[in-house]
């Protein structure tokens, strides 16, 4: 279905039932989308990333790579929810029950009156459409074929792990998840896998007072895959949001993260490490709004690029009037391993309060030759020395992963990726 | 041990000759010192021997135990037993000192076809060496040289030397930026490593270091050449009279 057609076709009606809320939300999203239109290259927000292949009628083909690599988070004791090319795989998934969790599939939601979900589904996405339009997210809300609705209570003893398998060269998947972290709850969501030839994914997270949400994902593997993902988060008083994304490979990835700090003393950290070799375009677009007192936000994005790989960072901190004592930090850095690779960064601060501390920095540079020589002079072979320096460069982003086992898992992935490339 | 013959070196980018025929032989177990005015080529010699980019050898040779080292990569030279204690040790944010040392020790062992050292053995080994150099656990955990004082950086160089057990150690102005106590500590670290099978080439501006690390031979380098060699008394002569007399003598 082309973008234009999508605008004229009503969202796929979910079966009648008590879940009319979902249908209402989807129709409203379709209306939003038709008003804003699909993104085009001349949009300011898409200046550095060409959206054409994300909005084209059919998903460009993406070869499924044969891999003997163990899946990321494969050993994690987690509740697994598996999607194959965007289609839920009940056999491969665990039962959707665990203490402290209510989980329902979006496609089943039509039979249910999930009152909490209707306050989140499409709602955070709608909030995130202002001041910058995010049409692919509206399209996601309107046309998502599945996803999960998760409600967490208390400290949930194991993470929910979304596994996105990619088996068809032409798959075009749209998934939409909603997570409601109730007051005082603490939950971790893991995501990994190439997902589909083209993947549009939306995750809305509503974090109540004193609640914590942790998110670690690993995107990657298949070189030709494309993805446009959105995370929308709303944070209550003294709540915590922490998200880390590792991206390896992928011809086009656009990860948007839109966060509203609406309760005092809340904390949002969003971090990413991306490593690209060759035909790789990776775009982190972040928008954090401080709308409460004494909140902290951190954006830490690191990219390692070579053989013509391309990195983009668009990061904004908006401090609204009255959001005093805001502590905002933003760093985006690229390590360019050759002269063909490129990094484009657009850091933005917009501040309407007078008692805030916001800092931002952006750099791109080559590997430190003096450090490389120092390591080699101690007997460390060049490729290994380079890997050490690259991992050191990425460390600040990886430090944002609180759970040590998950951090180790991500580090192992990176080491494996580099050793494959240097062998 | 180390044999340098007629070594001519140019800067790659500037077409400028720095070393103009250096001849130097350091026998096993000996300590040689090189002194000389600024710009005489002392540091260049240490960089060329350890394999730093940016220098072109236009003539001459350098061998370690008879093996030509000038065609080797820096890591191969290190595995062959060459070690340079840097004048300005490099800070490497994000790489822990301990990780760095373990990687270095095991890389060299691997290159020589030896078994890697187990984590336990390594820990025991490094603790023992660190203690004698007054390097605490915190310094081992911190990123390589980041936030280290001048003295700590130089002690860290000597710690690396002690861990890697090279046969040919080049110390490039290891005394620069050190107070008297720190210099003594560093010198003790070096002296503890002196042995029959290990040689040292100590580059320095001042005789003071040589009070602590007693050299067998002292060379004076000027304008890219060794212009005079002698015993420890040569260093004293420089200390008292400067280089002017020696330079005039040669000219």
Can you tell me the CATH topology of the domain at 2-92 and 167-249 in chain B?
Rossmann fold
Secondary-structure element string of chain A: HHHEEEEHHHEEEEEEEEEEEEEEEEHHH
Q: In this structure, how is the largest beta sheet of chain A organized?
A: 10 strands, mixed
For this structure, what is the CATH homologous superfamily of the domain at 2-92 and 167-249 in chain B? P-loop containing nucleotide triphosphate hydrolases
Number of strands of chain A: 20
Q: What is the distance, rounded to the nearest whole angstrom, between the alpha carbons of the first and last residues of chain B? A: 31 Å
Topology of helices and strands:
The complex is a heterodimer of chains A (423) and B (251).
Chain A: H1 3-8, H2 20-36, H3 52-55, E1 79-84, E2 87-88, E3 97-98, E4 101-105, H4 115-118, H5 123-127, H6 135-143, E5 148-152, E6 160-165, E7 172-181, E8 186-192, E9 198-207, E10 212-220, E11 226-235, E12 240-248, E13 252-261, E14 267-277, E15 281-290, E16 296-306, E17 310-319, E18 327-336, E19 342-351, E20 357-365, H7 369-377, H8 382-398, H9 404-422
Chain B: E1 2-11, E2 16-26, E3 31-35, H1 42-50, E4 55-64, E5 67-68, H2 74-79, E6 82-85, E7 92-96, H3 97-111, H4 119-132, H5 137-141, E8 143-144, H6 150-164, E9 168-172, H7 180-193, E10 199-203, H8 208-212, E11 217-222, E12 225-230, H9 233-241, H10 244-250
Parallel strand pairs in B: 3-10, 3-11, 6-9, 9-10
Antiparallel strand pairs in B: 1-2, 1-4, 4-5, 7-8, 11-12
Protein name (chain A): Fe-S cluster assembly protein SufD
GO biological process, one term (chain A): iron-sulfur cluster assembly
Domain SUF system FeS cluster assembly SufBD core (chain A): 171-393
Q: Which structural traits does this protein have?
A:
heterodimer, A: 423 residues, alpha/beta, 9 helices, globular, disordered N terminus, B: alpha/beta, Rossmann fold, SUF_FeS_clus_asmbl_SufBD_sf (chain A), SUF_FeS_clus_asmbl_SufD (chain A)
């Amino acid at each position: 279905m082309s973008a234009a057609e999508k605008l004229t076709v009503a969202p796929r009606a979910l079966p009648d039932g008590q879940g009319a809320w979902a249908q209402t939300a989807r129709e409203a999203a379709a209306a939003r989308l038709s008003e804003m239109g699909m993104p085009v290259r001349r949009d300011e927000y898409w200046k550095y990333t060409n959206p054409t292949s994300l909005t084209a009628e059919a998903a460009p083909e993406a070869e499924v790579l044969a891999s003997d690599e163990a899946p990321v988070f494969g050993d994690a004791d987690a509740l697994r929810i598996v999607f194959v090319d965007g289609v839920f795989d009940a056999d491969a998934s665990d039962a959707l029950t665990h203490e402290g969790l209510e989980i329902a599939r979006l496609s089943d939601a039509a039979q249910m009156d999930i009152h909490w979900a209707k306050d989140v589904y499409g709602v955070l996405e709608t909030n995130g459409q202002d001041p910058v339009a995010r049409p692919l997210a509206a399209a996601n809300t309107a046309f998502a074929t599945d996803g999960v609705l998760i409600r967490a209570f208390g400290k949930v003893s194991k993470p929910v792990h979304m596994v996105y398998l990619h088996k068809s060269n032409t798959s075009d998947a749209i998934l939409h998840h909603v997570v409601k972290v109730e007051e005082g709850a603490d939950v971790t969501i893991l995501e990994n896998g190439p997902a589909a030839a083209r993947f549009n994914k939306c995750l809305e997270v509503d974090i109540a007072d004193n609640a914590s949400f942790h998110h670690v994902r690993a995107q990657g593997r298949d070189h030709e895959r494309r993805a446009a993902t959105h995370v929308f988060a709303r944070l209550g008083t003294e709540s915590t949001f922490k998200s880390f994304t590792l991206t390896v490979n992928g011809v086009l990835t656009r990860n948007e993260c839109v966060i509203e700090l609406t309760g005092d003393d809340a904390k949002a950290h969003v971090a990413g490490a991306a490593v690209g070799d060759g035909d790789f375009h990776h775009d982190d677009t972040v928008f954090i709004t401080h709308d409460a007192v004494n909140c902290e936000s951190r954006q830490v994005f690191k990219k390692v690029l070579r053989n013509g790989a391309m990195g983009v960072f668009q990061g904004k901190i908006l401090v609204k009037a009255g959001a005093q004592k805001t502590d905002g930090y933003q760093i985006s850095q690229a390590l360019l391993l050759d002269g063909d690779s490129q990094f484009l960064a657009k850091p933005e601060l917009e501040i309407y309060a007078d008692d805030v501390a916001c800092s931002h920095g952006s750099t791109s540079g080559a590997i430190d030759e003096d450090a490389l020589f120092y390591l080699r002079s101690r007997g460390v072979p060049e490729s290994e020395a380079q890997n050490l320096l690259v991992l050191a460069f990425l460390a600040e982003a990886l430090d944002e992963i609180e759970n040590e086992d998950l951090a180790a898992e991500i580090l192992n992935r990176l080491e494996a990726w580099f050793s494959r490339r240097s062998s | 041990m180390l044999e340098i013959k007629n070594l001519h070196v140019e800067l790659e980018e500037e077409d400028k000759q720095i070393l103009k025929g250096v001849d130097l032989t350091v026998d096993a177990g000996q300590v040689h010192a090189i002194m000389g005015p600024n710009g005489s080529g002392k540091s260049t010699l240490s960089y060329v021997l350890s394999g730093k980019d940016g220098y072109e050898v236009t003539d001459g040779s350098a061998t370690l135990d008879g093996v030509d080292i000038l065609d080797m990569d820096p890591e191969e030279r290190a595995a062959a037993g060459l070690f340079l204690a840097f004048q300005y040790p490099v800070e490497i944010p994000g790489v822990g000192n301990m990780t760095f040392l373990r990687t270095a020790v095991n890389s060299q062992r691997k290159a020589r076809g030896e078994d890697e050292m187990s984590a336990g053995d390594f820990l025991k080994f490094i603790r023992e060496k660190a203690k004698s150099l007054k390097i605490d656990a915190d310094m081992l955990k911190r990123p390589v040289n980041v936030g280290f004082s001048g003295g700590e950086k130089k002690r860290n160089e000597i710690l690396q030397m002690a861990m890697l057990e090279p046969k040919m150690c080049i110390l490039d102005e290891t005394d620069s930026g050190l107070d008297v106590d720190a210099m003594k500590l560093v010198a003790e670290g070096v002296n503890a490593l002196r042995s029959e099978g290990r040689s040292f080439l100590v580059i320095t501006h001042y005789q003071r270091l040589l009070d602590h690390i007693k050299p067998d031979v002292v060379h004076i380098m000027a304008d890219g050449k060794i212009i005079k060699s002698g015993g420890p008394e040569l260093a004293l002569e420089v200390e008292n009279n400067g280089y002017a007399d020696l330079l005039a003598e040669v000219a």
